[in-house]
Amino acid sequence: MRYLLMLSLLLPALPVWAAAPRAGVARVDITPEESIWMSGYAARKRPSTGVQMPIQAKALALDDGRGGLVVLVAIDIIGLPAALSDRVAAEAAKLYKLDRAQIVLNASHTHTGPMVEANLMPMAPADNAELKKIRAYTNTLAGKLVTVIGAALGDLSPARFDFDYGEAGFAINRRKLEIAPVDHRVPVLRVTAPNGQIRALLFGYACHNTTLTAEFLEISGDYAGYAQAQLEKEFPGATALFFMLCGGDQNPEPRSRRELAEKHGGELAREVARLARTKMQPVEGRLRTAFQLTRLALNNMKQVNYPVQAVRFEKGFTLIALGGEVVVDYALKFTNQYPGERLMVAGYSNDVMCYIPSLRILREGGYEGGDSMKWYGLDAPFAEDVEERVTDTVAAVLQRVRK
Question: Which of 39, 271, 303, 345 has its Cβ near the most Cβ atoms within 10 Å?
Answer without folding.
Answer: 345
